[in-house]
Write a structure and sequence with these properties.
Radius of gyration: 32 Å
Structural class: mainly alpha
Strand content: 5-15%
Helix content: 55-70%
Oligomer: single chain
Distance between the termini: 96 Å
Order of helices and strands: EEHH
Largest sheet: 2 strands, antiparallel
Strand order of the largest sheet: 1-2
Number of strands: 2
């Protein structure tokens, strides 16, 4: 098995960051290379998901405030328009008011 540091598609810059220039569709030398490439991609996906999750957790309090504000606005609108429609009466109450004959 070839180590990535010995491969021609691997390089390291002056700051110590690793660069993998291998392409899984054309420059893979061994089957293990593809497995390593998949692990690297999964790690990138996980890091992206974690950063997105952290960002969403910072937005959660603001979203809660917005939802509360919108609910209050909707209730205020419903209360202000309640005079337009007659109040609904419960049909069960009407049956109890009838005399039993």
């Amino acid at each position: 098995m070839i180590l990535c540091k010995d491969c021609e598609f691997y390089s390291q810059d002056a700051e110590g960051r690793r660069r993998f220039l291998c392409d899984p569709f054309s420059t893979i030398k061994e089957a293990e290379c593809l497995q390593k490439w998949q692990l690297l991609r999964l790690d990138m996906i996980l890091a992206t998901y974690q950063s997105m999750n952290a960002f969403n957790s910072r937005l959660a309090p603001l979203q809660d405030k917005i939802f509360k504000y919108i609910n209050r606005e909707i209730q205020d609108i419903e209360d202000s328009e309640s005079w337009k429609t007659p109040e609904q009466t419960d049909p069960l109450d009407d049956e109890n008011d009838k005399p039993l004959i």
